Amino acid sequence: MNTGRTTEEFSIEKRGTLLVEDPLLNKGTAFTTEERIQHGLLGLLPPHVDTLEEQVERAYEAFCDFKEPINKHIYLRQLQDENETLFYRLMLGHITEMMPIVYTPIVGLACERFSHIYRRPRGIFISYPERDSMDAILENVERDIDVIVVTDGERILGLGDQGVGGMGIPIGKLSLYTLCGGVAPAKTLPIVLDLGTNNQERLDDPRYIGWRENRIKGEEYDEFIDLFVTAVKKRFPHVLLQWEDFASVDAERIIDRYRDDLCTFNDDIQGTAAVTTGTILAAIAAGGGELKDQNIVMLGAGSAGVGICLQLKQTMMAAGMSEPEARSHFYVIDRDGLLHSGRTDLDELHQQLAQPAENLKNWDCDTTGAISFADVVRNGKPGVLIGATGQAGAFSEPIIREMAAHVEHPVIFPLSNPTSRAEATPADLLEWTHGKAVIATGSPFDPVDHNGVTHTIAQCNNSYIFPAMGLGILASRSRRVTDAMFIAAAEALKETSPALKDRTASLLPSLTIIRDVSRKIAHAVALAAIADGVADSITEAEIDQRIEETMWQPEY
Ligand SMILES: NC(=O)c1ccc[n+]([C@@H]2O[C@H](COP(=O)([O-])OP(=O)(O)OC[C@H]3O[C@@H](n4cnc5c(N)ncnc54)[C@H](O)[C@@H]3O)[C@@H](O)[C@H]2O)c1
Ligand SMILES: O=C(O)C[C@H](O)C(=O)O
Ligand SMILES: [Mg+2]
């Protein structure tokens, strides 16, 4: 049985009901007659012995019987809690259809309804009142763990504070670690840090199953996070710890504080930066251009927006551009308008992306004071526009038409999730740009037919990066996560773009080959980790061998 468990863990043999109730060991109707005799299962299962393929067919039939996506989600989550091998085998065979159900966008709805659709526990819940029991809580995890994804539920996709319901995100992200990156499910652990919620709807909901208090903030918050990191390091010293969907201000502070302390990264900042850089590089290369010639507008200056621009800026500088010159290619817009050097309200991070005020002297602006999005697009004439605001409709028709008037093929990425928060729909973007826009979105969209041409819409989502990052880190036994590893991941992703061979093709490869894409990215990540001195020094052939050994396959 290939469950990703160690021999030692197997020696704690489970029998009978306990065995069929363990999703990591359960084979359900596929337990053979010999296994049924040997493991005390006689009479506990119907007599027919299924193959895994037969189980998959039955499960797919049941999946199709549900019409509402949320019910499909509940069904798949239940299957995952019953039999992980079957769950992943089913998902791998139907990845394009099922990933949006388990992950973005439907996982967003599942977080909002978490307390209503809750069935059985998965992962670890650490609430504020239990802060002094963190060691005991982590001791209750009876397995060795390679990857943790943790959230505090405050910025769930573009849906805001979901409190304990945010747990849906680490569960979904870790499902992708296995599905796309091949990390053994037994080695993954989702965690929610429940520090309360400021979402009044949740607080007023009699079904809410989180800690029913307003959020803890300030020093107490930081102390809690410190207790958590200390406990994780003690219990799982070599684990990869991924931070997910924290409010921007906490996300940045936390990763700055702990990045040199353990193997850790923030997916919304670093994973998003890598997928977007890789996809932008592919879009520009497909159009025959170069990054150094692009003016880039970023709407939204939170975790994602800042992370993306800093990585793109770093990429320009790595190609030989000076810092001031690279900075002048970015027009980053927050709620108060364009970030520029004349503003006195910018923190150190945002100053790194402030447009030099002298470049704006001859701009013709509609507004006095703040420089608006419309002013920026009209005067800056960008070739690339990215949205990370969480605001549906933020890319308006007049602004997109204005952009298209200045460039032949505007590159437009509405990255906000879930689907309901996208800054614009691909259909509208193609309509407003007469079919010229080169598009990638954060959430999945169906292909769009425009004037007889079918446009496949790439999903520029960090899901192309974090599972592969995990695979590369595990294969190379990396001890830290460095910027160079994300730069390598972005470059490797770019190289897989179908648009490099055919500019009308999708910017990103199909999910049906995601495990191969992950292998390539993992290889590049491992090489970068070795070059940075944070991983075992092994040959490229050894890297590939370890990638194959690490990759778990859903089979009995
Ligand atoms: N595609 C992906 O892989 C990916 C990855 C990370 C985040 N996202 C999405 O991006 C969005 C933002 O995520 P984040 O982590 O940066 O959140 P965040 O809260 O840190 O940042 C959002 C920022 O946008 C600003 N904003 C809102 N409306 C604006 C407007 N009209 N004009 C200018 N600025 C505006 C907010 O003030 C905030 O600073 C979310 O919807 C999230 O789902 C997508
Ligand atoms: O979860 C996603 O789909 C991507 C990203 O991490 C987000 O927060 O939107
Ligand atoms: Mg996220």
User: Which structural class best describes the helix and strand composition?
Assistant: alpha/beta
Helix content: 40-55%
Distance between the termini: 5 Å
What's the arrangement of strands in the largest beta sheet? 8-7-6-9-10-11-14
What summary fits the major beta sheet? 7 strands, mixed
Beta-strand residue percentage: 5-15%
User: Could you tell me the number of beta strands?
Assistant: 14
Could you tell me the mean pLDDT?
96
Number of domains: 3
Instruction: Point out poorly predicted stretches.
Output: 6-11
CATH class of the largest domain: Alpha Beta
Level-2 CATH architecture of the largest domain: 3-Layer(aba) Sandwich
Compute the number of helices. Answer: 25
Rg of Cα set: 24 Å
CATH topology of the largest domain: Rossmann fold
Quick one: CATH superfamily of the largest domain?
Answer: NAD(P)-binding Rossmann-like Domain
Ligands (ions, cofactors included) = nicotinamide-adenine-dinucleotide, (2S)-2-hydroxybutanedioic acid, magnesium ion
Question: Outline, from the CA principal axes?
Answer: globular
Family: Belongs to the malic enzymes family.
Domain Malic enzyme NAD-binding: 269-530
EC number: 1.1.1.38
Binding site for (S)-malate: 155, 417, 461
